[in-house]
Write a structure and sequence with these properties.
The protein is mainly β. The protein is built from 2 helices and 21 strands. The longest helix is centred in the first third of the chain and has 20 residues, at about 1-20.
């Protein structure tokens, strides 16, 4: 693996030299940052990469003496979010200005791959006067890049804020102050859950990609918009009784969002409602609503979620900020007869409040954030459309200190 890292950086250096000397209009410029996170949690958490990407506190789990095993603190220091971005420019093609981007980091693709180099973004973009076409992997359009929460934590507001990167084809058209976006997406690192765990196979077997539409209005640094999404999954190709099946689950989601630039304060907010949002690192998913006892063929129903967040920030050299988020599981439209597939399907609601302060000096930033997250766990009532009852709330306090060096 080390030889691949070395080869990658050598290629980066050589390409950069070539970009500076080339007269053909092609070039690549590199940027990124080195970041180290120092993390303390008051409780065990549901998270990724050794606790780095925090979602919510772990539920109660009692030992033989009725002591909650998860009511124990944790500590870690990690630099795996450090990243390298290459922005590519080139000669015009098809009457459009061309550009591209390659970006990776050392976050790995699984807990067993911590420190592994993984792909974040890889796309080519064609820009005409009012229209653009993007092909490749980048942020899911439900993650609104124009109003990203300013959290110090790498979760960037997840699971309240939709968080995913997807291979996609995205078409945009700008008319005056309006932008219209249409996209078709596949899944790679951020996947749906199903009978075989988290996998992109359920979307691939459905043949139809995720479909997304969005309208934005922008004026003087202020943005507002709405987005809609359609997703279809085929969880199984064969039942547990060895019978072929193509039963699928379709779901819809919608989002409203805005950003207000009220100098010196910036306000960002978003609300999301929909079903089967686990691939966006949010609550929900789907469940089995009926099973044919002879063939084993299952029919499915989606689990809906409502989520909202707001982020306030002010200051430059010394920045103060506050993030708040709330999510609620709404159950399904049908009673449940079998398994649940998703994320946090036994969590009725989540709440987070995280104030932060950041000190900026040239290319260096020192940040600290206090993140309080509570989760209300319960039991799914299959005879009441999977609604979660008999709630028990747990909470985690994360103290995070981060040091950045940008280049």
């Amino acid at each position: 693996m080390k030889k691949y890292f070395l080869l990658f950086f050598v290629l980066c250096i050589l390409t950069n030299i070539y970009a500076q000397e080339s007269k053909s209009g092609f070039g690549i410029s590199f940027s990124g940052f080195v970041k180290t996170d120092i993390i303390y949690d008051s409780r065990q958490t549901v998270s990724a990469r050794e606790g780095h990407f925090l979602l919510y506190p772990s539920p109660e789990s009692f030992d033989a003496n009725k002591v909650d095993i998860n009511d124990n603190p944790g500590f870690n220091i990690l630099s795996i979010q450090s990243r390298l971005t290459g922005k590519i420019t080139g000669p015009d093609a098809f009457g459009a200005k061309t550009s591209g981007q390659l970006e990776g980091e050392f976050f790995g693709t699984a807990d067993s791959d911590v420190n592994g180099f993984r792909l974040r973004h890889a796309f080519v973009k064609l820009d005409w006067e009012q229209t653009s076409l993007l092909v490749g992997q980048t942020w899911n359009p439900m993650f609104i890049t124009e109003l990203v929460p300013g959290t110090v934590s790498f979760n960037t507001g997840a699971p309240f804020n939709p968080f995913a990167r997807n291979p996609q084809i995205r078409f945009s058209i700008a008319i005056d102050k309006f932008k219209f976006i249409a996209a078709a997406l596949a899944q790679r690192d951020f996947q749906s859950n199903g009978p075989n765990g988290f996998s992109s196979s359920y979307l691939r077997n459905a043949v139809i990609p995720n479909l997304h539409g969005q309208i934005q209005f922008a004026s003087d640094g202020n943005i507002a918009g709405i987005a809609v999404e359609y997703k279809k999954l085929t969880p199984r190709l064969v039942t547990t009784k060895n019978v072929s099946t193509d039963e699928s689950i379709s779901s819809f989601a919608a989002s409203v969002f805005f950003k207000l630039d009220l100098q010196p304060v910036t306000i960002k907010a978003q609300g999301v409602y929909g079903g089967n949002l686990a691939d966006l690192m949010m609550l929900g998913g789907y469940a089995v609503k009926s099973i044919d006892t002879t063939s084993g063929i299952e029919q499915y129903t989606d689990l809906k979620c409502l989520s909202t967040w707001i982020d306030l920030s002010t200051g430059k050299e010394i920045e103060f900020g506050l993030f708040a988020g709330y999510s609620k599981s709404l159950g399904s439209s049908d009673n449940i007869a079998g398994s649940y597939f998703g994320r946090g399907t036994n969590i009725e609601n989540l709440f987070r409040l995280s104030p932060r302060i950041q000190f900026n000096s040239e290319k260096t930033r020192i940040s600290t954030e206090l993140e309080y997250t509570s989760a209300a766990y319960g039991i799914n009532d299959n005879l009441d459309k999977g609604k979660i009852k008999n709630l028990t709330s747990v909470a985690n306090i994360r103290l995070l200190v981060a040091v950045f060096y940008f280049f």
